[in-house]
Amino acid sequence: MIIRTVLRVCLLSxxxxxxxxxxxxxxxxxxxSRVKLGSQDAGVNDKSDIKIYVDRPTSYKNDLVLIKLRxxxxxxxxxxxxxxxxxxxxxxxxxxxQFFAAGYSYNTQKxxxxxxxxxxxxxxxxxxxxxxKMTRQIEDLATDQSHLCLRPIPTFEIKNECxxxxxxxxxxxxxxRRDGSQCVAGIATPTNDECIEDESPxxxxxxxxxxxxxxxxxx
Length: 219
What we know:
Peptidase_S1_PA; signal; 6-stranded antiparallel β-barrel; Peptidase_S1_PA_chymotrypsin; Thrombin, subunit H; 2 domains; 6% helix; mainly beta; 13 strands; 2 helices; globular; 4-stranded antiparallel β-sheet
């Protein structure tokens, strides 16, 4: 099942959004015209959701895109509906950090998004991701701390129509610090657009590297 519409994004400022390359398109017809922020359920149009028109995305190594909002978010919107991401410090990745992915679940039968979810992940050696299915070639994949390899930690849950598709819905990677607070460290690498429903390893793009930081701070 290929998913092209329901993606998690990282709000960097009141006017900039960092997202997966899946938010881009090869032609003007497929480009995103708006982003929806603050949604708890991708399949529901809530009055509190914020929809804003955007400019053409700027691409980074066929991996990430930076999207500029045509209208800045105001203080009310930032306090009530959405919040600017609290980015981690590189030191937050040292030792044995606790990782969580946040994304939208997906109904593969109806091809539509569902509610937001979080899932704990296990940090692995990069070699564990060598068999990840690749339908999109990512530049500089897994070089110089550019990516992390993680695997969902299995948990018992009641089966329903919606699946937790980490890569296909561009889940955002969070680190839980010792004090209980969380920060953002990455975005699921768009190696493929499929909903993989098992505990297979997957790549997350580390957005704390100097290269990525220079990319979004240069805008």
